[in-house]
UniProtKB/TrEMBL annotation:
InterPro entries: Cyt_c/b562, Cyt_c_II, Cyt_c_prime, Cyt_c_prime_subgr. The lineage of its organism: Bacteria, Pseudomonadati, Pseudomonadota, Betaproteobacteria, Rhodocyclales. This is Cytochrome c. One of its GO terms (biological process) is electron transport chain. It comes from Zoogloea dura. Heme c binds at residues 144, 147-148.
């Protein structure tokens, strides 16, 4: 099962790489910002139901949000960090630090950790166990934060 996820991720990255080769740097920045914004919104939906207001817990909504997070994590977004996307371009601003482009092994390690946690969040959300979802939500959020702390500029 894990090999399937790795192979799927590599295939998705390859397809996305082909697609990003056709996208201008400013479009790559725009697309990746949109993907992260949509994941953030869905993380917020889960947070609302398992942390902020657990009385509002709705298994189907949490699972739908977890599905989006896992799908986006596995979509090959790494291909949207092509040449020319390391700086603001064409009206699109980026908050990526230059070190992101200089440390591909560290980026890969953090990305794979996020994918792992996002996939686990999806599995746990399918159980409907709010306490387990809350725990896994924290792990998923920490994997996001690890990359932000290392490679994202403050506004």
């Amino acid at each position: 099962m894990k090999i399937k996820h790795v192979l799927f991720g590599l295939a998705a990255a390859g397809l996305a790489a082909g697609a990003s080769a056709q996208a201008k740097p400013e479009d790559q920045i725009k697309f990746r910002k949109a993907g992260y914004a949509f994941m953030s919104w869905n993380m917020g939906k889960i947070k609302q139901q398992v942390i902020d207001n657990p009385g509002s817990f709705n298994k189907d909504q949490v699972l739908a949000a977890a599905n989006v997070i896992a799908a986006t994590a596995n979509s090959g977004m790494g291909a949207l960090y092509g040449p020319g996307t390391d700086k603001d371009v064409g009206g699109q601003k980026t908050r990526v630090k230059p070190e992101f482009f200089q440390q591909p092994d560290e980026v890969r390690k953090l990305a794979l950790a996020f994918i792992k946690e996002a996939n686990e969040l999806q599995k746990v959300a399918a159980t409907g166990d709010a306490a387990a979802i809350k725990t896994q939500f924290g792990k998923t959020g920490e994997s996001c934060k690890a990359c932000h702390d290392k490679f994202r500029k403050d506004e």
